[in-house]
Each structure stands twice: as structure tokens, then as C-alpha cells.
Amino acid sequence: MFKSIMEWVDARLPISDLIKSQATEYPTPKNLNYWWNFGSLALFVLIIQLATGIFLVMHYKPDAALAFDSVEHIMRDVNWGWLLRYLHANGATFFFVVVYIHILRGMYYGSYRSPREILWWIGIIIFFLLMGTAFMGYVLPWGQMSYWGAAVITNLMSAVPLVGEDLVVWVWGGFAVGDPTLNRFFSLHYLLPFVVFGAVFVHLWALHAVHSNNPDGIDIDEHKDSLPFHPYFTVKDLYGVGVFLIIYCGFVFFAPNYFAEPDNYIEANPMQTPAHIVPEWYFLPFYAILRSIDFLGSFSKLAGVLAMVGAIAILFVLPWLDRSPARSFRYRPLSRQLFWLFIIDCFILGWVGYNPADATVFGGMPIVFVGRAATLVYFGYFFLLWLITAFDIEKPKPTPTSI
Amino acid sequence: MKSWNGLKRWGGWLAAAITAVGLGLPPASALASGGVAPPKQDWTFSGVFGRFDEASLKRGAQVAVEVCMSCHSIKYIKFDHLRSFGFSEAEVKAMAESQGKTKKDKMISGMDPQAAKDSFGTIPPDLSLMTKARKGYEDYTYGILTGYLNDKEKEMVEKIFADGNVLDPEIKEAAEALHLGHDLEKAKKSLERIHRGDNFNKYFPGNFLAMPQPISAGQVTFADGKESSLEQMAKDVTSFLAWAAEPTAMERKSAGVKVIAYLVLLTIMLYAVKRRVWSRIPH
Ligand code: HEM
To answer: What is the pLDDT of residue B33?
Structure first.
């Protein structure tokens, strides 16, 4: 019965062929390690966000006078509303956890190298879209941090030469963050995840054109060294989903506000600035870079914004900065050391971003000094990676000929 | 080896650049504040298996209605909600009526916001989300309620000013006891404000707040006969406010235990299947 229906469909739309060639029999390197689980996990979290978001919208009110109350209504009165909201809020956090690991995996194993440049680019575009989506989503509950975070970040656009001030007013839809801002952010917060979904499709399209990289970073003999995606990687990815769900649900059910700022449980009040405005943790390293450029007088703001955007945009040219004959850092001792320095540096930047701009550390040193040094190290990674590979300073170990 | 020398040379340049950019230039600004972190308390409802103590919630609701509500609202809770932890309909009705309300009404304070502004300079914040809306959470609310000066501390401050002769060792001693920090000038200013009658609290950021000490020992006669010490009342009303901040919290935790148990089982099974499937290929 099912078979004859499928035959009927396949004669008109070859779904079975597509599933076979692109999913079940898609050739996958047999030596992939667990860091390769994070791509499918990212897709899984995207689906969680879409599913919970659509149900939240059924009860949420994008109105400056009602938004905060409507979120509390979801928490208190809607059946399982607290679950929807905590899944969604922590889903955003875990989306970034997963995506950061996914990106760093690519950086360590050289997955951005030829022929995967376009695949890599689409990934970066997804990351930008994700940041925009999360930023606008965070404004929706209309707490103090929503409001003031939105004010601080949108204000950055005033750094654009000539039209900056007008641009900010245009984005706000008024002379301050207010109801029109909330409305348009809501509209875009609903739209962008679907754009992300489209971008993910192109990302996978590009992946399936060039096939997966692997921990050795070498081109493989697909007849000898690949396995069909199903069942080998479906079951491995499902196991990864299980582990992920345990950790994620641990937070959702037992510490759902662990990543939340208490101030966001105070309704937005345009007349009262919170003592300390902090973005969500996933923006902190970039926020630190933004604030560390404070020594250029009236150009500081523009330069800070450029540095912040540049910190991610530089990933676009990473495929051309890295000139090593080996892709994977497994065979590149110097690159590997730089990589770990880079990771530590990102944590330092995060810590700087979390602290107030005028905090002092180590007995009186202004924290911005640490921020500036860490920003330099951040960009230094890309410079040094180019340097040691372009001038053969790093001598990679021989790569194996097969996996 | 050669590569190392190369890196070292460039590393030297990098270090020099970090010093130049990072440390050579003055920062854009600098600041400070008052109030210490409240001490941690044991809450029956914390942790995976922690649950609210209904007797404590009932006492806490009594404190909230009899004391806090003369100034604060708890707007996300209706009197009728209070039945969910053991009050009878008649009890809830009586509590609502004591505030000139019916059981279907929200717990809104009778105090007029403008009147509040006139007497306190600010409107007392709604307490529905208080335990989630401050760093320190329940410990903070408890800290605020118990962080006013006790009789001994009041006496100490008064003694400093009694002889018209304020001595540094006295300030030092008081600053230590009240966590006023090491800056004696600042500590002295704070002590003067206390002496003038401003509301001092150890745990409030900046130390001085508009709320006079709201509860003191014996203020409420508990319906269940429990002794109403300051600590007991503070603990009970904070527990009640923690309930009010998220009445679904216990439902969440019970569901969580089942969800995690299920997921762990599922994941173990998936791992077994994974092992089985992958054992087919030689490594
Ligand atoms: C890329 C996927 C998404 C991300 C990263 C994301 C992120 C966020 C974040 C960080 C919040 C604030 C949560 C809080 O603190 O309360 C939020 C709220 C919200 N999001 Fe999303 N979201 C995504 C997708 C969606 C979708 C697809 C929808 C609707 C179809 C949606 C609807 C909402 C609504 C209604 C709220 C307000 C309710 C609340 O604050 O809990 N989201 N989102």
C-alpha cells in the first residue's frame, strides 16, 4: 500500500531519489568525531525555536503597554506557557552554545578552506542573522534590560557618518525606543528565523555539493572511506540530540533563569536607567570589542562599531588568510596554539564585556585596558594565522593520505 | 625551531603593540557604590527536589497581606490564588475583605500612588516578581527585610554622636560592623545620615532606601501560633513572594524530574543502538 503510493508520487516528484541521494545514502567520512554533531544540533534548536515561538505568539502582545504583562500571562495562566517560554529563552542561549562550537569546529579542522568557502560564508551569514534575531527577541518581553539593551545597541547606528542620527530615529520610529520599535522588532523577530531557515537550506545545499570535511582535513576516497548517512550518522546525531536535551532540559526545568538578567523581570521604564546595562552572554565578547575602542575621541563610536562588526566579518576572508598546505590543525602545531589562545581570549573578552565599562581590576587597573589588549589578541589571531602560513613559519606535520 | 624563532620575534612585536594600545592610553571614565551581598539562606524550595512548605507560605501570605500590602501591590496574584497552598475559601475571603477587596480581585495595595510618592519620594515597587528581579534573588529580599540596624547597632551609632565628639576608631568600628567599606570619610557621612534618621540597610545597593523597616519581632500574630521573630517573618514572607513570582515553579520541577529521567533512559538506549550499528564496521 505504502509502496504503491510512493511509486505514484515518485513518478511525479522523485522524493525517494532525493531522500536516498541527499539523506540516507549521502556519503559521509567515517572518521567524523563528535564535534561534527553540532551542525545537526543547530538545526534541531532552530526547529525548537520555531515551534515554541509560533505558540508564544498566540499569547504574546507586541504592545509597549501590554508586552510585559502578556509574558507573565504566558508564565502563569497559559497551560504549559512557562514551558514554552523557558524552552524558547534557553533555546536562544543553547543555540549560541551550539553554533559557537560549530563555528570553532570549522576553524580548528580547517573546514572553511577550499572548496568550502561558500559553505563557510553562508554559515557566517546565518550567524549574523541569528544575532539579529536573538537581539530583537530579547526586546520583546519589554523588561528593563530589553528596553535599555535596545536603546544602547540601536544608538550605535548614530555612529554612521552624516545620516546616523536620522537613521536612529528611523529605526526607532520615534525619538526614543518605544511602542513602534517594539512592533517592528516583533515583526522582524518573526520573519528572520524563516530567513535563517532558508539560509540553512542553502548551507546544506553547498555542503552536499562539496561534502563534509573531516578531522584529518584531507580529501577522502569516498568509495573506501565514507559511510552512508543512514543509519551511521542518523543514529549518532540522535544520540547527540539526547545528550543535548538532557543538558538543555536541565536548565529549562531546574535553572531556567540561570542565563537571564534579574533586571529583565522589571518592566521597561524609560525614565530609569539600570545601574549596569549588560547584553546577553552570547554578545559579550563583541560588546567588549565595541567598548574597548574608546581612545579615538569622536571617532571612537564609529571605530568601535566597525571593530565589532569586523570581528565577525573577518571570518569571511579566513579562507584566504590561512595558506597552510594542511587544513586540519591536527597537523599544525603552531596554529593549534594560536587557536587555544584565541579561545581563551574570547572568554577574557566575555568577562570584560560583562563588567561595567569603568570597572577596575587587579588593584586599580581600568578594565578597558584588558579589553583593548584582548581585542588586539582577537584580531591578532587572524593576522598571525596568515603570517605563519603565508611565510611558511609553521611547518605542518605530514598529513595521512587516507583516513 | 626556525618557526619558533619567527613566532617569538612576532610575539615580541605583538606584546609591544598590546602595551602601546592597551596600557599607554587613559581610559574613558571611573566609579564606586555601597551595600554588600546578602548571605545565603536555606530555602525549602531550592534545588531539584526542594518544595514549598505550605505552612510557611500561609504565614508569609499573612505577613504580606497584613504588612506589605499597606504599601506594596502584588498585582499578578489574585486573592483566590492563595487557595492553591491550603487556605480555605472563607480564609481567602476574609483576607480580601481586610483589604476592602473581594476574592476575585488582584492583590493591589490600598495606598494611592500619588500619596506614596508624597510620603516616600517613590512608589513602592510591585512585589510579584521581586524575588526574580534582584541579584541575590530570595536571599536579597530576606536580606532587605533583616538588613536594618538591630538595637545593638542602633545604640552603637547613637553612642558615636552622643558626646558630640566623633572619633576615627569609633567610625572604624561601626564601618566594620555595618559593612561601610574602608573609606572613613564616606563611612562618616553614612553614619551621620543614620543618625538623622534615614533608612539604612546593609544589603540595599547604596545603603539608603525609602522603605522604613517594615517588620519587627512580634508584629504579626501568626494564625498557626508560630512565634513571630523577625527572622521567621522574613523567611515566611520571602517564601511567599518566591511562590508569587512563579506559582508554576514546583509543577516545573516535578515535570523536570520525569522529563530528565525519560531523556536519560532514551539517551542510553540511543547510545546502545549507536554502538551496535557502528560495530558493523572495522576501525
Ligand atoms: C532563530 C530563532 C530564534 C531565536 C534565537 C529567538 C530568540 C528569542 C529571545 C532571546 C527571546 C527573549 C526570551 C525572553 O527572555 O523572554 C525571544 C522571545 C520571543 N520570541 Fe523568539 N527566537 C527565535 C525564533 C522565534 C520565532 C520563529 C518566533 C515566532 C514565530 C518567535 C517568537 C517570540 C516571541 C513571541 C517572544 C516573546 C515572548 C518571550 O519573551 O518569551 N521567536 N526570542
So the answer is: 59
Residues B52, B190: one domain? no
For chain A, residues with pLDDT lower than 50 are none
> Per-residue b/e over A64-78, b at no fewer than 16 CB within 10 Å?
beebbebbbbbbbeb
Range of the domain at B176: 149-198
The contacts of residue B47 (CB under 8 Å, 6+ apart) are none
Residue (of A54, A65, A281, A31) closest to A182 by Cα position: A65
Interface pTM (ipTM) of the complex? 0.94
Contacts of A338 in chain B (CB under 8 A): none
Q: Residue A160: name the closest of A168, A152, A169 by CA.
A: A168
Which residues of chain B neighbour A252 with C-beta distances below 8 Å? 256
How far does residue A352's CA lie from ligand 1's centre (Å)?
27
CA–CA distances in Å: residue B71 to residues B74, B107, B112, B116, B206: 10, 11, 9, 8, 22
Cell 498557626 belongs to: B224
Statement to judge: residues A270 and A130 lie in one domain: yes
Total structural domains within chain B: 2
Q: Which of A216, A263, A267, A280 is catalytic?
A: A280
Q: What is the mean pLDDT of residues B124-128?
A: 98
Check whether residue B58 and residue B178 sit in a common domain.
no
> Do both A297 and A337 map to the same domain?
yes
Interface mutation target, options A142, A144, A254, A383, chain B, most CBs of B under 10 Å: A254
Q: Would you tell me the crossing angle of helices A300-313 and A284-292 to the nearest 10 degrees?
A: 140
Active site residue A40: no
For residue B59, give the CATH number of its domain: 1.10.760.10
Q: Is A95 in the pocket of ligand 1 (CB under 6 A)?
A: yes
Distance of alpha carbon A257 from alpha carbon A260, whole angstroms:
5
Q: Which of B198, B229, B264 is the last residue of a domain?
A: B198
In chain B, % helix, strand, coil (3-state, to 5) comes to 55, 5, 40
d(CA A136, CA A150) in angstroms, rounded, equals 8
Domain endpoint, select from A274, A305, A327: A274
Alpha-carbon distance of A5 to B220, in angstroms, equals 75
Indicate whether residue A140 lines ligand 1 (CB < 6 A).
yes
Q: Read off the pLDDT of residues A215-248 as tens digits, 9 standing for 90 and up.
A: 999 999 999 999 999 999 999 999 999 999 999 9
Q: Let me know the angle formed at the C-alpha of A175 by A174 and A179, rounded to the nearest 5 degrees.
A: 45
Question: Do the domain assignments include residue B18?
Answer: no
**Is A97's C-beta closer than 6 angstroms to any atom of ligand 1?**
no
Has residue A12 been placed in a domain? no
* Number of domains, chain A: 2
Picking from A240, A274, A308, the residue at the C-terminal end of a domain is A274
Total residues found in chain A within this entry: 403
Distances (CA, A) of B281 to A223, A226, B277: 14, 11, 8
Shared domain for B234 and B182, answered yes or no, is no
Distances (CA, A) of A80 to A83, A245, B218, B249, B250: 5, 18, 41, 11, 13
Q: How confident is the model at residue B22 (pLDDT cuts 50, 70, 90)?
A: very low
Residues B177 and B222 occupy one common structural domain:
no
Three cell numbers, residue A81: 506557557
Instruction: Classify residue A43 by burial, with Cβ atoms within 10 Å: 0-12, 13-18, 19+.
Output: middle
Contact A373 B264 (CB under 8 A): no
- Give me the pLDDT at residue B29, please: 38
State the average pLDDT over residues B61-90.
97
Q: The CATH number of the domain where A142 resides is what? A: 1.20.810.10
HSE, side-chain direction, 13 A CA sphere, residue A266: 20
Matching residue, cell 511509486? A7
Classify residue B110 by its DSSP letter.
Answer: S
